[in-house]
């Protein structure tokens, strides 16, 4: 019995610590020897012989390849699903970073905590405090969305004059050359004031001509366009999506045929004859800034049927820059997306001749467009929509926290009702998750990474959390949020939610295909190596990869079982105290996720990519591992503030609970039922033990959102808060401060009323009676009167004339009670 227990312990230790094959051989041989000589238990020659054969096969490379990995290699090449060129380019795009650790089953937390903290330099901070603050003060979102349906001319000019369109452009070309972190924080701050301005600023700095030019443009293209883009002389748009190719952007029907032709350059007015170029036809839709763009980035499929460039007829997707004044370019109409007012519209053209030199990067980059796009997309998807989601979280946290404390019903602030505080906790918790997740990814970007998998995680999960926070905020505000008008600071964001869900990869597609579809291959320690070895017919590399992969699987089986049995109590953690258990649980579920991922690929093979529901759940596992670690990183970065423990606990515990639910759903639906039963026993030996954050924790988050303090300040930091009491958002802070300050006086007045001390009926008359009777001082009277006025200002909604044209600016004066 002792020998058996010792053997199991040895195997478990070897697997847990991922010992190499040679270590397995030496340790097990030593065990056999100990069994024979120390315990008097003879081992037959036959057993030694079999063990020696296995040891030889495992450790002698030529023998292992001949007997084991060679035959497996042959099978692997046959069953590996073929990948299209666009799939290969998408998988090869970008880099892997912290997501690889999460796929490893053994996240290196010291590495996580050693990542540099994202910071603004002095110039970036000055830009946020100066031009960005000033721009926000110029934005009247109601006027923009309801009256003008556009930014006012002076706002457009301010954006151009102050370099907002050139944040990513290098200084040598006249741009600001901000860090990715600064870029995101500028977009976030603007978005807290108005989505139209934020989109107008973020698009030229995201995936588009500026980004593509800096990475792939010719020197002549950079020298001409980048200074003009940086100063707003040129307004760019990028046309990729067509009516027939939305999420499947790689199948765009737009095309360009290589030929000779003539054209007049609208920039110089010069006419050129018999030029080698392209005759391009396109029809694009949903192109942001297209109606006002002066330069059109255009993606199309390029063909050379007459072999004017070479032997290849189908060149591939190509990107070109076309001045919108060029003959044949049709542009200038607009869509009206979700009630938002940012410029978005169609563009089309038929047989428009352009020279080859208008291809981004020149003739050398013909056919390289898809690779260029997917490589740059990982940067933009980490910044633009995630930043707008963070902005939405900050606004809903700031406004809902204040409104729930100011607005009362049944004698209590509505935020103190448990149904409301449950929704408020979601707002605060999701806001914490969103900013933590983006800030960690921005750290990677500024370290030179292009995390394509994490960009998909951010795009999906931040926009979904944005949707949840705005829905909860709308519910809590009730009629205040239903009635449109200048006082409604939520409804336009609520109307616009489907835009963020749809663009830059529709959320359904992103969750069910992209996150895990890319992650399984890019982040797995061995799968991409095996696939590349198969494509290159490299048996030696395949041998190294497959033996490592087998060891990886065996390790994760034992690690998952041990961590599940012990509740990960003995796993390592880089910090003690309150957060230690979270690191340990993440280690446990990282191992379990790696095991489930391998078993999914093993049992389903190439069909896994068509099992979108299973792939989505695997993606949810990876995403929630990332979100939980990002929250822990944020907590450390912000000084491990005790005030923030409640929101940290809510954020991490709910992320881990969602992760557990994804694993449960995956196992419940895995087609191989026998395998599913075994995996469930390994991963959940005691059942589903994790719970979401408790009601008590949620109440702590909600109460902190309603009171001035460190947690509320950190959740809303970087938001633009108008100083004026006349502003619908600005008045909230003034009203909250005033109501908290006068609460003792209001309590005294309520007690006097209960004791029958007043003859008056209305609250206003009772306050006046209390002053006359000397029950309150003049200072208390003035403070309460002001607080009540501010409260009325907060809770009032707008009304208009019957034509919905003229707004009543004097509604506060209609004060009957």
Describe the sheet with the most strands: 7 strands, mixed
| CATH fold description of one domain | Butyryl-CoA Dehydrogenase, subunit A, domain 2
CATH superfamily of one domain: Butyryl-CoA Dehydrogenase, subunit A, domain 2
**Main structural class:** alpha+beta
**CATH class placement of one domain:** Mainly Beta
User: What is the tally of helical segments?
Assistant: 31
Q: How many E-type strands?
A: 9
Low-confidence stretches: none
Average pLDDT, rounded to a whole number, is: 90
Over the alpha carbons, how many angstroms does the gyration radius reach?
Answer: 31 Å
- Helical amount among residues, as a percent range? 55-70%
State the separation between the terminal residues, measured CA to CA: 86 Å
- Taken from the alpha-carbon principal axes, the silhouette is flat
- CATH architecture field of one domain: Beta Barrel
Q: What share of the residues does DSSP label as strand, in percent? A: 5-15%
